[in-house]
């Protein structure tokens, strides 16, 4: 328990004792605050969890104790599919989720998760700040009832393997683990690989046992999940400039006052900015760290991978229309 939480816990005990002495029941005091569930699939060592805990503290403070929040990390409340479903059921109140998983509820929001959709980080940031993203987020809310509040930078996704990958041809037939959402399969399919969906918490063992030959994730995630222990090469394909969306479930959002809705929006947007900064810093530092661990960092010509994938952007896998695609590509030009 951190210092701020310990201080509030002590203050709460004093308040409850005072209320009891005044003839107010303990049950009445406890009911004054509603406890929310924030679920995600990431490790407690990752920035996403750190800033989720920070957000929980800020929510409690800024709502003057009307809401408290418990953060459940590392798939402890279920896989990504489960926690997305839980939003509408009210079994979870807040989640981080990939845009590709959110895209199951509203196709256009998945565009941010397509391979080589963004030119670079600046293009991603411009999209995160754009009217286009706000329109897409509103479309998702209208379709699902759940409310996207912020876009967090997840990092550039790279392929790890036990053999070097320098060209698209090197991935032909490669059995590569991907998350269980169609957009993650766009790049492997485009280069003739064999994308294999496996739950996030099962990937390390699948790599160790040779169930799959490779996987793809950003550098901070590769470290947090220790994938570098069971893969020799980190091939810097940078094929997805990826995001996590912070989403509040409709059942919870509709119970909030307008004042509290604004507090939630502000807190989670601040947390997303902090997540983004931390992930950027980690990406800058981790190449040298992986080399110290004995991994080979393999620079690749991303242009040839991009050329292989771009024709699929508006193909059969697309869940957005041409206008949305063109608007996204025009951002920052």
UniProtKB/TrEMBL annotation:
Residues 1-32 form the signal peptide. It is found in: Cell envelope. InterPro entries: DctP_fam, TRAP_DctP, TRAP_DctP_sf. The keyword Membrane does not apply. Gene3D superfamilies: Bacterial extracellular solute-binding protein, family 7 (3.40.190.170). Keywords: Coiled coil, Signal, Transport. GO terms for biological process: transmembrane transport. One of its GO terms (cellular component) is outer membrane-bounded periplasmic space. Residues 265-292 form a coiled coil. It comes from the Bacteria. Belongs to the bacterial solute-binding protein 7 family. PANTHER family: PTHR33376, SIALIC ACID-BINDING PERIPLASMIC PROTEIN SIAP. This is DctP family TRAP transporter solute-binding subunit. It comes from Vreelandella nanhaiensis.
């Amino acid at each position: 328990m951190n210092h701020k939480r310990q201080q509030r816990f002590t203050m709460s005990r004093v308040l409850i004792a005072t209320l009891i002495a005044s003839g107010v029941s303990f049950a009445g005091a406890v009911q004054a605050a509603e406890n929310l569930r924030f679920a995600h699939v990431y490790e407690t060592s990752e920035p996403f969890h750190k800033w989720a805990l920070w957000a929980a503290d800020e929510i409690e403070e800024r709502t003057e104790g009307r809401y408290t929040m418990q953060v459940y990390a590392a798939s402890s409340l279920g896989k990504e599919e489960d926690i997305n479903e839980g939003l509408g059921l009210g079994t979870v109140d807040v989640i981080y989720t990939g845009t590709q998983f959110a895209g199951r509820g509203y196709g256009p929001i998945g565009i941010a998760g397509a391979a080589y959709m963004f030119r670079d980080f600046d293009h991603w940031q411009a999209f995160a700040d754009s009217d286009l993203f706000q329109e897409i987020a509103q479309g998702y809310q209208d379709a699902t009832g759940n409310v996207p509040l912020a876009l967090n930078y997840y990092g550039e996704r790279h392929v790890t393997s036990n053999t070097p990958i320098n060209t698209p041809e090197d991935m032909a037939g490669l059995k590569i683990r991907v998350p269980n959402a169609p957009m993650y399969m766009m790049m492997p399919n485009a280069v003739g690989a064999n994308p294999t969906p496996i739950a996030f918490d099962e990937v390390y063992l699948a790599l160790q046992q040779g169930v799959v030959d490779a996987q793809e994730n950003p550098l901070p995630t590769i470290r947090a999940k220790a994938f570098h222990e069971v893969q020799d090469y980190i091939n810097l394909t940078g094929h997805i400039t990826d995001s996590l969306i912070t989403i509040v479930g409709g059942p919870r959002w509709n119970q909030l006052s307008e004042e509290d809705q604004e507090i939630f929006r502000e807190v989670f947007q601040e947390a997303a900015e902090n997540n983004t900064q931390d992930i950027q810093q980690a990406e800058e530092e981790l190449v040298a760290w992986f080399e110290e661990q004995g991994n080979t960092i393999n620079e690749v010509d991303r242009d040839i991978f991009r050329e292989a994938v771009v024709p699929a952007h508006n193909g059969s896998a697309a869940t957005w229309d041409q206008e949305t695609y063109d608007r996204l590509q025009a951002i920052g030009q």
